[in-house]
Amino acid sequence: MIGIIKWQAALMLPEHKALTKKKDKDDYFLNKKPVLDEYQVEEFENNIHYAMEYHLPISFRLHNEGNPIELHGYCVYIDPVTKELSIQKKDSSFEKIKFNEIINVIVED
Length: 109
Prior knowledge:
By secondary structure, this protein is an alpha+beta fold. Helix content is 34%, strand content 34%. It has three helices and five strands. The chain has a five-stranded antiparallel β-sheet. The model has no long low-confidence stretch (mean pLDDT 84).
Protein backbone atom coordinates (compact mmCIF):
# COMPACT_ATOMS: atom_id res chain seq x y z
CA MET A 1 0.00 0.00 0.00
CA ILE A 2 2.82 2.43 0.78
CA GLY A 3 4.48 1.81 -2.59
CA ILE A 4 1.30 2.80 -4.43
CA ILE A 5 1.03 6.10 -2.59
CA LYS A 6 4.71 6.80 -3.13
CA TRP A 7 4.46 6.58 -6.93
CA GLN A 8 1.14 8.36 -7.43
CA ALA A 9 1.16 11.73 -9.18
CA ALA A 10 1.23 14.76 -6.93
CA LEU A 11 -1.86 16.94 -6.86
CA MET A 12 -1.68 20.47 -8.17
CA LEU A 13 -2.95 23.28 -6.05
CA PRO A 14 -5.59 25.52 -7.67
CA GLU A 15 -3.10 28.41 -7.72
CA HIS A 16 -0.56 26.35 -9.65
CA LYS A 17 -3.20 25.17 -12.08
CA ALA A 18 -4.38 28.76 -12.71
CA LEU A 19 -0.82 30.01 -13.29
CA THR A 20 -0.07 27.16 -15.69
CA LYS A 21 -3.24 27.85 -17.63
CA LYS A 22 -2.47 31.60 -17.78
CA LYS A 23 1.09 30.95 -19.00
CA ASP A 24 -0.13 28.62 -21.72
CA LYS A 25 -2.71 31.20 -22.82
CA ASP A 26 -0.10 33.98 -22.93
CA ASP A 27 2.36 31.84 -24.89
CA TYR A 28 -0.35 30.95 -27.39
CA PHE A 29 -0.81 34.58 -28.43
CA LEU A 30 2.91 35.34 -28.76
CA ASN A 31 4.13 35.14 -32.32
CA LYS A 32 7.10 32.92 -32.94
CA LYS A 33 9.97 34.49 -34.84
CA PRO A 34 9.89 33.28 -38.44
CA VAL A 35 12.88 31.37 -39.72
CA LEU A 36 14.54 33.37 -42.49
CA ASP A 37 16.53 31.72 -45.21
CA GLU A 38 19.77 33.16 -46.59
CA TYR A 39 18.06 34.71 -49.63
CA GLN A 40 15.69 36.75 -47.46
CA VAL A 41 18.57 37.94 -45.29
CA GLU A 42 20.52 38.92 -48.42
CA GLU A 43 17.48 40.83 -49.73
CA PHE A 44 17.22 42.69 -46.41
CA GLU A 45 20.90 43.62 -46.62
CA ASN A 46 20.52 44.84 -50.21
CA ASN A 47 17.48 46.96 -49.30
CA ILE A 48 19.32 48.51 -46.35
CA HIS A 49 22.39 49.34 -48.43
CA TYR A 50 20.23 50.78 -51.22
CA ALA A 51 18.34 52.98 -48.75
CA MET A 52 21.58 54.17 -47.17
CA GLU A 53 23.19 54.97 -50.53
CA TYR A 54 20.30 57.10 -51.80
CA HIS A 55 19.21 58.36 -48.34
CA LEU A 56 15.73 56.88 -48.64
CA PRO A 57 13.36 56.26 -45.74
CA ILE A 58 13.12 52.64 -44.72
CA SER A 59 10.54 50.66 -42.79
CA PHE A 60 11.55 47.78 -40.51
CA ARG A 61 9.34 45.11 -39.02
CA LEU A 62 11.02 43.78 -35.89
CA HIS A 63 10.42 40.75 -33.71
CA ASN A 64 10.32 41.98 -30.11
CA GLU A 65 9.76 39.09 -27.69
CA GLY A 66 6.82 37.74 -29.64
CA ASN A 67 5.22 41.06 -30.50
CA PRO A 68 6.14 42.46 -33.92
CA ILE A 69 6.73 46.22 -34.04
CA GLU A 70 7.19 48.70 -36.89
CA LEU A 71 10.06 51.18 -37.07
CA HIS A 72 10.30 53.91 -39.71
CA GLY A 73 13.28 56.15 -40.40
CA TYR A 74 16.67 56.36 -42.08
CA CYS A 75 19.50 53.88 -41.62
CA VAL A 76 22.60 55.97 -40.87
CA TYR A 77 25.16 53.42 -39.68
CA ILE A 78 25.78 49.69 -39.74
CA ASP A 79 28.10 48.27 -37.10
CA PRO A 80 29.58 45.06 -38.55
CA VAL A 81 31.09 43.94 -35.22
CA THR A 82 27.96 44.05 -33.07
CA LYS A 83 25.61 43.59 -36.08
CA GLU A 84 23.51 46.59 -35.08
CA LEU A 85 21.90 49.27 -37.20
CA SER A 86 21.56 52.89 -36.13
CA ILE A 87 18.21 54.23 -37.26
CA GLN A 88 17.32 57.91 -37.27
CA LYS A 89 13.58 58.07 -36.71
CA LYS A 90 11.26 60.72 -38.15
CA ASP A 91 11.42 62.74 -34.89
CA SER A 92 15.27 62.97 -35.23
CA SER A 93 15.91 60.52 -32.38
CA PHE A 94 18.17 57.52 -32.86
CA GLU A 95 17.50 53.89 -32.11
CA LYS A 96 19.79 50.89 -32.39
CA ILE A 97 18.38 47.59 -33.56
CA LYS A 98 20.01 44.21 -33.88
CA PHE A 99 20.06 42.67 -37.33
CA ASN A 100 18.72 39.33 -36.03
CA GLU A 101 15.52 41.06 -34.80
CA ILE A 102 14.53 42.08 -38.34
CA ILE A 103 11.57 40.27 -39.89
CA ASN A 104 11.01 42.49 -42.93
CA VAL A 105 12.60 45.53 -44.61
CA ILE A 106 10.79 47.85 -47.02
CA VAL A 107 12.42 50.81 -48.76
CA GLU A 108 9.95 53.67 -49.01
CA ASP A 109 10.52 55.52 -52.29
